[in-house]
Amino acid sequence: MAKFSSVKYTQGGVHLSLFLLRVGLGLMMLTHGLPKLMRYSNMAPDFFDPFHVSGHLSLGLVLFAEVFCAIFMIIGLFTRWLAIPLLIELLVITFMVHAQDGFGRQELPLHYFLGFLVILILGPGRISLDGLISRK
Asked: Which residues contact 37 (CB under 8 A, 6 or more apart)?
């Protein structure tokens, strides 16, 4: 029991935790992006357009984050760079899309935001393509 309550950690534990966080968040983000991709033509005309650039472009940017960035997050390639569009999207969802909805609707994107922020700060860990490339 003393070991379970210890504040010590191992490098292997940190890398495994980053792997689980990265893959888990990436897969969960895909569950939001793939349905949008499949219904692009129906959704685009009326898609929320916070920057007044068009529903098509706004949905395209969301798909870039939720599908493209999520896939690369899962495999751990360009991880820190691709965390940035995800973080921006989650801030837009929290403070623009759900601005009037209260914390109950803002909580989920904030959870995602915190997870991707940890990945941005700590990186993908060794169990990633970025980690494999950096070892060479």
From this structure: 63, 67
Task: Classify burial at 26, counting beta carbons within 10 Å of its beta carbon; exposed 0-12, middle 13-18, buried 19 or more.
Answer: buried
pTM of the model: 0.92
Number of domains observed in the structure of the chain? 1
Checking if the pLDDT of 3 tops 80, the result is: no
- Domain with 23, as residue range(s), is 18-134
Q: Would 45 be classed as within a structural domain? A: yes
- Determine, yes or no, domain membership for 60: yes
Residue type, 28: M
Is the distance from CB of 129 to CB of 73 less than 8 angstroms?
A: no
Report the C-alpha gap between 113 and 111 in whole angstroms.
5
| 90 occurs within a structural domain | yes
Task: Dump the DSSP string for 44-106.
Answer: GGGS--TTSS-HHHHHHHHHIIIIIIHHHHHHTSSHHHHHHHHHHHHHHIIIIITTTT-HHHH
